[in-house]
Amino acid sequence: MAEFVGAVDQGTTNTRFMIFDHGGNEVASHHLEHEQIMPRPGWVEHDPAEIWARTRAVIETGLRRARLRACDLAAVGIANQRETTLVWNRRTGRPYYNAIVWQDTRTDRIAAVLERDGRGDIIRKVTGLPPAACFSGGKVQWILENVDGVRRAAETGDALFGTIDSWLLWQLTGGPDGGVHITDPTNASRTMLMDLATLDWDEELLSFFAIPRPMLPEIRPSADPRSYGTTRPRGPFGGPVLLAGDLGDQQAAVVGQACFGVGEAKGTYGTGSFLLLNVGTEPIRSDHGLLSTVCYQFGDAPPVYALEGSIAVTGSAVQWLRDQLGVISGAAQSETAAREVDDAGGVYFVPAFSGLFSPHWRPDARGAIVGLSRSSSHAHLARATLEAICYQTRDVVEAMRQDCGVVLGALRVDGGVTANELCMQIQADILGIPVSRPFVSETTALGAGYAAGLAVAFWGSADELRQNWQEDRRWQPQWDDRRRAHGYAGWKKAVNRSLGWADVDGR
Question: Which end of the chain is more exposed for a tag (fewer CB within 10 A), N or C?
Answer without folding.
Answer: N
